Amino acid sequence: LTMLHFDSWEMSSQNWTQAFKAEFIKRRGYDPTPYLPSMIGYVVENRERSERFLWDLRQTSNELVLENHAGFLKKYAHDRGLGFSVEPYDMNPTSDLDLGGIADLPMCEFWSWGKGLDSEYSCFDSVSAAHTNGRNVIGAEAFTSESADAWLQHPGSMKNQLDWALATGINKFVIHRYQHQPKPGQLPGMAMGPYGVHWEATQTWWDMVPAFHKYMSRTSEMLRQGAPVADVLYLTPEGAPEVFTPPPTALMGEHQDRRGYNFDGCSPKTLLANATVKNGRIQMPGGASYKLLVLPNWETMTPELLGKIVKLVEGGATVLGSPPQKSPSLQNYPTSDAQVKTLATRLWGNAPYASRRKVGLGQVVFYGFKAASTLPNAKWIWETGGNPAGGVDPGTIYFSKTIEVEADKKISSALANFTADNSYEVFINGKLAVAGDNYHFTNETEVSQFFKAGQNEIRVKATNGGTNSNPAGLIGAFNLTFADGSQQEINTDASWSSAKTAAGATGRVMELGGSNMGPWGQVNGTPSIYPAYTATSQLLNSQGIAPDFASGAPMRYSHRRLKDGELYFVANIEESPIATNATFRVTGKTPEWWNPITGESRELTDYKVANGRTSIPVRLAGSESGFVIFRKPIVKKPVATPNFPTFTTVKTLIQPWNVTFAIKWGDPIKATYPTLTDWSQSSNPAIKYHSGKATYTTNFDAPPSFNKTSRYALNLGTVKNIATVKLNGRDLGVVWCDPWQATIPTSLLKPKGNQLEVTVANLWSNRLIGDAKLPEAERKTETTHRPYGADSALQASGLLGPVTVQKVSS
To answer: How far, in Å, are 75, 155, 269, 304, 586 from residue 275 at the CA level?
Structure first.
């Protein structure tokens, strides 16, 4: 036992105790009794005073929960030699960042993509709490889900999301969940109802999963080295409850990956306690530092917090934001308001505010928040016919448009602002870019990574929900900004096309009216209390600070600064291969590639150093990942030889395969297949509904071009869902993710008579579906959770290939 754990709150707020009044007076300096009616909605004296009292009330509750609950539990744990872990989110009455800051191990929670809740916000919370409080390990309750999991997850399907979590800053994974089995012989056994990924010894592939665990361990340990690197520190508003939510434009893509300038959130409490300035950067315990402090668009700030910001700026910090107008508290009111105005004038001067103002060794950059975008030029549209604004039958319409981007223009920013009644998904060049389901707000999203020079195909899937006739419409716009400062705006209007099916014939659309038309009324941009990413990135760039990471293809990253070098974790976001240049904000050191799956490492010879950055050609398989390490001084000039090997197919194994199915409830089934086939297509029910393993064996000769000095690999092609490989009696390990390859050791491949053995494990779903067709007494499986019916779709299973021998060339 090493840790006492404080799980996610999930129980709403507490705001009174026997000693609350005395604590309130001690902390706020006045008696709350006259203002208590405002707790049930009455205005006492005036609205201003009532709101200030309620702020004080919530702040007192916040402090007492932090001290008397979380603080007490932490001391209790430490007194017994234990650490204290906290999941500081979900309806708690505190600031999430402050609750997480108490923990020895801040934790978050993420659900398997598409299989439950959207809780990524908690990851931004906990990672920020850790980085700003000097905590080096950040945990996650990982891969939880609802019934949609249904035994469908496996290491290969989980890798892309695991890489997202690693790039976000998480480096410890507590998989939700492992179910202990009261009767180990029952398969697949007891489940935790419909919840969580099925991560237990009854899984069909459990003896193969150590390879995935090794990957998780290696990457987590690497990302605990050194200190996190980020440039932007977002200050949250004072008060409680408070959740840190980064501006949507600081993130990119379907899964909210961080852009080239990384960030953290910081609570006022943490800023007051921990922040110092050195060499123009705000320093935090543990080594995290930030070039830019971004203030929230918030009318209020206490004199204590604003005074701290004044000291940071005078010490050399750069602050972006607008001046607060008053204190949020009734404490020391109205003197406190005068103090806020005095301090604000000290930083921003008098209105009209200068765009940049030198204060001491630092500077304040004024950011005047504009009203949220209202799509002034866009039109509500729908397919022709009827009166969509008045009501049409429920259904889905597919809208499309081609956008031309001039070949000689480089996109610096592309914002998508869309909404629909009732829901929508926007695809750019076949990739999901943004989605939403609230027609009152557009979901402003940075989508430049999806655009390319030339023609760009836009598809929007808009669904009118409900069961009866109701209003239907789509509205949106793309705003492209180019490196030369020019802009291009594309709005929904009569020039779009529509279809009733994704691949159906297209026709005209109907313009319904402008963005403020009925029945929808004014459509606003997604509320954000922080400036758009373009504002922070342009400011940092103007100060000579280039993006920490950039690439010509969708990649995610995380950067740690080591004592004697730099460590970057990088991953291909796409499930298809990419070949691109990746650029790192490092100079003077030789790049190395460390492969966390194989454990291999090597120097990268082809790179360019310019303008304080190192650009490296990279080639990655779908969802492939690794580490780029800079630790050794450059002693050799770069050489234009490939950094990553190429794999050329020199032989495809087309001979028959002998397959032995390990049937858990009977004798093994042996079969010979002239070609590789999907088990679920078999005419034999025992194979068709088999869940478990099957071992494939075959013999083959090396290709005619075989050379003992050459390097070779074995590629399994398509595998459903995980495999082990043996060649000539030697174990080549577990193959569990793209590129589905096993390296063939030198001299193992023979000119003639090579013996290949591949053992494949599939998922539990097919046997559960087969059992659903049987009377209960004849079923093989025993479980407390049966999500499948007799008509459920079977999952493709087995070694599907093609299996090839590949020559490896550097």
So the answer is: 25, 41, 10, 14, 26
| Same domain, yes or no: 141 and 71 | yes
Does 237 map to a domain? yes
Give me the DSSP letters along 315-367.
TT-EEEE----B-S-STTTTHHHHHHHHHHHHHH-SSSPPSEEEETTEEEEE-
Give 637's Cβ-side CA count (13 Å radius): 2
Domain with 492 in it: what CATH number? Answer: 2.60.120.260
Is the same domain home to 337 and 422? no
Which residue reads 């034999």 in tokens?
A: 684
Same domain, 218 and 75: yes
DSSP string, 571-631: EE-SSS-EEEEEEES--SEEEEEE-TTT--EEE----EEETTEEEEEEEE-TT-EEEEEEE
Residue with tokens 């998480």: 170
802 and 683 in a common domain: yes
Same domain assignment for residues 323 and 442: no
Residue in 469, 487, 486 with CA at minimum distance from that of residue 478: 487
SS3 144: strand
Q: What is the pLDDT of residue 374?
A: 63
Does residue 347 sit within a domain? yes
- Per-residue pLDDT of 235-291, as tens digits, reads 999 999 999 999 988 998 888 899 999 999 999 999 999 999 999 999 999 999 999
Its pTM stands at 0.90
Verify that 221 and 245 share a domain, yes or no: no
Last residue within a domain, chosen from 319, 339, 366 = 366
Same domain membership, residue 666 and residue 599: no
Question: What is the radius of gyration, based on Cα positions, of the chain?
Answer: 29
In order of 43, 94, 306, 433, the CA distances from 14 in angstroms are 22, 10, 29, 40
Distance CA 434, CA 619 (A): 27
Is cis: bond before 787, omega within 30 of 0?
no
- Is 536 within a domain? no
- Residue 697, phi-psi category: left (phi > 0), alpha (psi -120 to 50), beta (remainder): beta
Cα(504)–Cα(482) distance, rounded to whole angstroms? Answer: 34
Residue-wise over 476-491: b if at least 16 C-beta within 10 A, else e? bbbbbbbeeeeebebb
- Distance of alpha carbon 175 from alpha carbon 154, whole angstroms: 13
Listing DSSP states for 243-281 in one string gives: -----GGGEETTTTEE-SS-EEEE-HHHHHHH-EEETTE
End-to-end CA distance of the chain: 48
CB under 8 Å to 640, separation ≥6 — which residues? 606
Same domain, 190 and 68: yes
Query: At which of 606, 622, 643 does a domain end?
Result: 643
Amino acid, single-letter form, for residue 462 = A
Per-residue pLDDT tens digits for 106-149: 999 999 998 988 899 999 999 999 999 999 999 999 999 998 99
| Domain-located, residue 540 | no
Phi, psi of 660 (to 5 degrees): -115, 115
Residue 178: per-residue pLDDT? 96
- Count Cα neighbours of 281 within 13 Å in the Cβ-side half-sphere: 15
Number of independent structural domains in the chain: 5
Query: Cis before residue 241, ω within 30 degrees of 0?
Result: yes
- Residue 276 forms beta bridges with which residues? 283
Q: What is the DSSP string of 176-198?
A: S-----SSTTSSEE---TT-S--
DSSP 510-533: EEEEETT-TTT---EEPP-SS--H
Domain extent, residue 163, equals: 3-225
Cβ atoms < 10 Å from Cβ of 564: 9
